[in-house]
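Quick one before lunch.
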Amino acid sequence: MLHYQLNLDVASAIRSDFSFQQLIDEIENSDRPGNIWRFDADKIFNSEWCNDMLIKGLNFGSSLVFYRKAHYIHPTAHIDLSWSDLKPTVAAINWCIGKDTGDMIWYHGDTSVQQDKLLTPADTLYIERPIKELEEMHRYQIGSTPTLVRTDVFHNVEVRAQPRLCISARCRTIPVLSDLTWANTVDFFQPFFI
Ligand SMILES: [Fe+2]
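Model of the fe (ii) ion complex:
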């Protein structure tokens, strides 16, 4: 499996003074097709919610926010890399704000090929490959349920009639980063699976 729905209440996760509209307006009033922002956990999440999650053993350190305009399909798939060891980021916890009519898509693709590392607008590292060179493996509509998604294989999102606003929360799991794999991340989150 490449994704697992999580039994986490995110209704009160976002700080009341955090404005998605400002981010949306920034892009909708530009000719850019979308953007990525990165926030430390305390800037985007309620401290009460973070504490509730900590009690459950979930230590959220930061979050990305993705926004793509309606009908935008980025021509490449990517793998996120960690700054600390340049290895692929294994997983994220994603959920959409508002209506999600898009699909997250995973692709087969050799991830061991050496290639240039690129920077997102949020200063995170990634590698990318044109989707026309990759074979689709699986697709899934995340919607508003927080979902553990695998991010160390090539992936992309197809946005359809609705623009897509997605939270991608990053949770520290295993303290020894070199031991981190999708398999032990799945084990860690197992108690929260729906
Ligand atoms: Fe990604």
